[in-house]
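Supplementary Methods, section 5.1.

A reviewer requested that the exact input to the structure prediction be made available. We therefore reproduce it here, unchanged from the version used in the analyses.
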Amino acid sequence: MKTQMRFQKILSYVTLVIAALCLVFTVSFLTGGMGNVHYYVPLEGGVPSDKINATNFINASQGFVSTMLILSIVFILVAALLFVTASNRRRKYYVTNYIAIGVLSAFAIAVAVYMFIGVSNVMNLFYNDIAWEAGTNGGKNYADMFNSNYPVAKSAANFVLGYALGAIVACTAVVHGLNLLWKIKLMQGEKALLQGGLVKEVA
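The structure derived from this sequence is encoded token-by-token as follows.
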């Protein structure tokens, strides 16, 4: 039981860190080259002038970041439930512990799924919707409109990080589920030992 209790404590802190990493990833997602895309869709007379066909990308990426910001904050709060319910240190789990772990696992899966879908959608628009090549889209493309002050590199770093973090979040949910099964098995074992000892005493 000591090994499991030590593991559940470490897992709780790791989960909180992962939730915080989701927030860090979110606020840094539209940085660097991707963050410069909006400079190619300036306002002219109060109306956006899309110079590289990036409107869909901007709308999708900003929507993804806005939703992920909310999900990340809620994820941190849900991870904090592990500490509020003492799921990180309790020897015996009660209803509140099962609820906290169940909510955390379900929410983590939801976050992971949203990350995979959102990152895939934004990446597709970034690579395939924006007009990159010179002489395309009636001259409204990145090559012809290039501004050295606002370079946009076709880097996959943020997308790879998104997929990796999504996979880690999904694994976190699975590990919590397995840890709960481990806990239940150990609790059942302890209960059986106690009952066995009680029977001997009565005899």
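The mean pLDDT is 92. These observations are discussed further in the main text.
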